[in-house]
Amino acid sequence: MAERERTGMPPRGGVFVPRTRVMDADDMRRAVTRIAHEIVERNHGLEGVAVIGLQTGGVPLARRLHDALASVGDGVDVPLGALDVAFYRDDIGLRPVLPEAVTDIPFDLTGLTVVLVDDVLFTGRTVRAALNALNDYGRPMAVQLAVMIDRGHRQLPIRPDFVGKNIPTRFGEQVDVADDGVTIGEIVRRQP
Amino acid sequence: MNGHALVIRGGEVVDERGRRSADVAIRAGAITAVEPGIDAGPGVQVLDATGCIVTPGLVDLHTHLREPGGEAAETVETGSRAAALGGYTAVVAMPNTDPPIDSAAVARQVLELGRAALCDVRVAGAITVGRKGAQLAPIAELAELGVRLFTDDGAGVQDARLMRRALQYSLALGVTLAQHCEDASLAEGGQMHEGAWSSRLGMQGIPAEAEELMVMRDIALVRLTGAPVHFLHLSTAGSIAMVRAAKEQGLPVTAEAAPHHFTLTHAEAKSFDPVYKVNPPLRTDEDVAAVRRGLADRVIDAIATDHAPHTQEAKEAPWDEAPPGMLGLETALGLALTELDMPIEAVLALLSWQPARIAGLGAEHGGPIVPGRPANLAVIDPSERWTVQPERLASRARNTPYAGRTLTGRARHTVVRGEAVVVGGEAQR
Amino acid sequence: MKHLLSIEDLGADGINEVMRLSDSFVEVSERAIPRVPALRGKTVVSLFYEDSTRTRLSFETAAKRLSADTMTFSVSSSSVNKGESLRDTVETIEAMGIDAVVVRHKSSGVPWRIASWVEASVINAGDGWHQHPTQALLDCYTIRSRKGDLGGLRIAVVGDIMHSRVARSDVEAFAALGAEVLLVAPPTLLPASLDGWPVKVTHSLDEVIGDLDVIYLLRIQRERMTEALLPSLREYRAIYGLTPERLRALRSDALVMHPGPMNRGVEIDAEAAEDPRSVITAQVSNGVAVRMAVLYLLLGSGADLVIGGDQ
What we know:
The complex is a heterotrimer. Chain A is of the alpha/beta class. Helices cover 26% and strands 29% of the residues of chain A. Chain A has a single domain (24-171), classed as Rossmann fold, CATH 3.40.50.2020. Chain A contains four helices and eight strands. In chain A, strands 3-2-4-5-6 form a five-stranded parallel beta sheet. In chain A, strands 1-8-7 form a three-stranded antiparallel beta sheet. Chain B has twelve helices and 19 strands. The longest helix of chain B is centred in the middle third of the chain and has 18 residues, at 208-225. Chain B is globular and about 65 Å long. Classes of the chains: A alpha/beta, B alpha/beta, C alpha/beta.
């Protein structure tokens, strides 16, 4: 979501033009499996662990991670939720932000270790908003961060716990994470 | 010195008799010569009328000067200045002041204030005491003072029997009753014209019938008594049709219409700005078309401004709390010239000599422009383009619905009783 | 979008956007701590010249749940000086530094006038007989939550249409979303002209009741009798009231709605108000979420978007 806001995708206008493929479908699959193992290792199992995807890019990834955790953890069905941080952003009024979808956290997260999942980690503002949002749902014991891509340019002291791939980028570039791969490109604005 | 105090030079003289290129010489309040090439001489004021029409001054049958009682919005002086700037040399002040002009004392007070005014200020007397519609006012006493028109304007006389008596009485005195046609029971609580817009905007409406019922009734009373009636501010197609029929039957009825009723419709209310609130209200496109047709074929005899100043505070209240009324003296001429598709003589007939006659002022106002007649004249530039700016109006109030509108046609000079009260669009005092 | 003065400001797209946003705010309202920081630092003022505790509280709750600061000026509590002109009052309030003013007034058009005098956003909470846009929005939202898309639904609005700002806003909103709107009222309670209204009209409720998806009952006020618009409230109930008999004739999947407060025993019988088809309480609870959506659109991160209507 950070990408979409920064780069003025519709309704502000602009088309993503891909330039370099940095991960393909197999790379992503392997990354998801590896992260699942790392989560189990780090938390000594899956007891008290929940997965929450950030709308919208983190949601399908959270689902894939949830399924990967099930196969790694002998069929454990960790609680899965989705979080939209539109109402928690610290740049309210600077750009138009409407929630992409409703937040759905169908469990009490007090005392749990919440693994936040997003597709791309960039400035860190989305994650910071997510931390604020989580507080309104309860008091997790710990929060860990899993991302497919860390592209640098952090503006806040936030670091990921689990990373699919580190990819250095220029600030103005865009990183697109799809089901079948990750591409770096740029937004070309439509003619007015 | 060759004795000409004022010369209007280089214009086209237009009056009821026709048009000719001529200069006009004026001395001691009267026209002394009307011919081309008048030599002004030293010490004589010259008014340049190049490209202009020189015409009898305009006469407004229907002005609210608000004095006594409403001086915050307008006074006789400020209203007369607005009139003169609008090309008017005479106005008839309506009696709905506080106290109302229902006695010789108040009439005298207003006439006295009018002596120092920038135009000729006459008054209309009330028909009933206090304008309450119950008892006849001392019409004869007021007629002694020269009052020729009587009306309860602001309200209509509701009681038919009383109106009949008033008409009979007026006939004997040779004065004319003027009616603000509004049936109070039908109009009660109404804020704007009853129709598609009032329904949409959620406002109580005043049906056209509120005006038409009284027009119908008074035509019948005219037929009954033989006395003349002048209908104030007619606004509906139905009213105008009835007046047309009455005239065809030879009945002594005359009628006037206000500029806002031939330029604006009830759609203006959608802004909820009470500057558009007026009584009778702005009506439909069909009504506006009927007013224009009525003016074109002289069923409507005169354009009268119904100049109704109100303080800014009063007009900033919510619509239903704000008083009705719009300014008109400084914009009437421009609106008539810009909006009515008529030869200028026809427009001037509606603004000058016809209202002069209805008001009983034909001896002094309304022309024709010939030596010997009192010098009450307007010099009009029919092609001057100007934009209405409320802050720059001479009226004390600002409630014009035409703010920002560009008009073509304006009075350049106005001469009242031989005095140039307006020169080059500027009031001289 | 700067103001919400009438449903016309939104158009179908705007109405749908508000409803979509309302889903998110319903979720917020269901949390243990029903609050988000979206309007932190913003001030929302209620300026209620007409007494209305429920609408005012609904707006204030909505503002508070968005973490905005609120202030109240209401005539009944005499913090609105009756002698002071409307313009002076509004300009004084704005001088205190506010972001939005929620206005309710007995005179049609007041919100438009206020919008021309102040920089703050203006939300119409009901002006005279004219508009009550947030009511229409929560009505649409309530219908949508039970029946999905409003397109093609047969909705009857019953009662004093002439004097009803709820009716005017609802008619515009329902029609914009493609519903078939039917007005049911005696001739004296219909507006003088229905030119351009996207509605059908009938004077007989019994003729149409069996076919309706939604029956929306308007409140009848006692004053209408003194104005010779109605012979008696009893007669009104007999012809236009939602009585037990009519309730039986209503389809089992139809909705019963009312903007409140109800005159039980006049336009709606107690039995009808308590019927399972009644969504009257849902209307009230949806009101907060819908008003949160409106405030968010005007003052929050949705503010820059151009939505529907004619801005």
